[in-house]
Amino acid sequence: MEGLVPVRVVSPSLYRCKVPVSIKGSISGFAMDKRIKLFRDPSKFSIRAQQSDLKGSLSVASSSVQEKGNVLRIKEWELEMYQDELAISQGIRIRRKPPSKAPLGYSGPFELRLNNDDADSPRNILEEITWYKDEEVSRMKKLNPLEVLKKAVEDAPPTRDFVGALRMAYQRTGFPGLIAEVKKASPSRGILKENFDPVEIAQAYEKGGAACLSVLTDQKYFKGGFENLEAIRSAGVKCPLLCKEFVVDPWQIYYARTKGADAVLLIAAILTDLEITYLLGICKKLGLATLVEVHDEREMGRVLGIEGIELVGINNRSLETFEVDISNTKKLLEGEHGRQIREKNMIVVGESGLFTPDDIAYVQAAGVKAVLVGESIVKQSDPEKGIAGLFGKNISHT
């Protein structure tokens, strides 16, 4: 309804005011004359005194509202600070949001941090993406409320077995199960494929022997989109689909499910242990698999301490510097970490820097049973042949 304006709540003390107030333009000649006469008789009514009382009451009410509003702002700001402290304690270097100043007059446990000259611009590409993603999700939530998504999920078709597809591919071929990535661009490499048809590429991947597909849904930095995920699912591609997104809010999980995802990516570099645990619970409820991605030993240690994780992705690319080193996979799978992974029967997914059969052999020898590959095959004129070249042989079903 247009024309409506918010109504402010007035202090109850104002309702006791004795000033006669009319909300109509005119009542009657008699009534109006009687009111005017009443106002002119100081023995019966002092309008100046009543005006003073009214101003005083309004001032008190306004002051009270402002004070309560500032208390709320302080509590919200402190909550953000506590969340930051928790992330820092877990070794998370990526800030989820730009640093914000304390509310006016703040006095509390974070006073010592107020004078720190913390950078107010992103320190690396992952932080930039994460800050933008937080704003983007806020906008998208207004267009697609969570309650609407929850109802849509109830009518969505069942998910496909992402983890099972990887295990079967490993048994069938003797090679790590392939998660082939449908990706048009990346921040580090720019445009990877000019004539980009996500459905055509997905179908070629499936024909070439991919066990699962990863679909980039970030638009700004990777030129992807949820519409690509939806189109691939609608085209009848049977491979289970991973929604490759920078998840910072539970809303994204529901949205991915409504667009046809069978699995989602969770990045340990931007999520606390508690957040990962909470998001895992949502995914389990919705029938989604989760690929939890790590980059270093500390993140690997954190993830191995969280119950319910079946897929661990080791990204050989630093999401801070974008440098690639496939020996990172071997390093993270040695010693106690490797023992725990074998004990829990987890599937380790090797990610980034895989271009040749030797690369595949290297990470497989380290303990990898699945690989996520995008650039080396999406750039090929024939993705099906690109897959065969990656593994050194044809791994298709035919």
Automatic annotation (TrEMBL):
Per the record, the pathway is: Amino-acid biosynthesis; L-tryptophan biosynthesis; L-tryptophan from chorismate: step 4/5
What does the record give as EC number? 4.1.1.48
Q: Which GO terms describe its molecular function?
A: indole-3-glycerol-phosphate synthase activity
- Listed Pfam families: IGPS (PF00218)
Q: Where is the signal peptide?
A: none
Q: Does the keyword Transferase apply?
A: no
Give the matching CDD domains.
IGPS
Q: Which superkingdom does the taxonomy of this entry point to?
A: Eukaryota
Task: Please list the reactions this protein catalyses.
Answer: 1-(2-carboxyphenylamino)-1-deoxy-D-ribulose 5-phosphate + H(+) = (1S,2R)-1-C-(indol-3-yl)glycerol 3-phosphate + CO2 + H2O
Top class in the EC scheme: lyase
Task: Tell me which UniProt keywords the record has, alphabetically.
Answer: Amino-acid biosynthesis, Aromatic amino acid biosynthesis, Decarboxylase, Lyase, Tryptophan biosynthesis
Q: Which InterPro entries does the annotation name?
A: Aldolase_TIM, Indole-3-glycerol_P_synth, Indole-3-glycerol_P_synth_dom, Indole-3-GlycerolPSynthase_CS, RibuloseP-bd_barrel
| Indole-3-glycerol phosphate synthase domain: residues covered | 126-388
For this entry, list what GO says about its biological process: L-tryptophan biosynthetic process
Protein name as it appears in the record:
indole-3-glycerol-phosphate synthase
- Native species: Cardamine amara subsp. amara
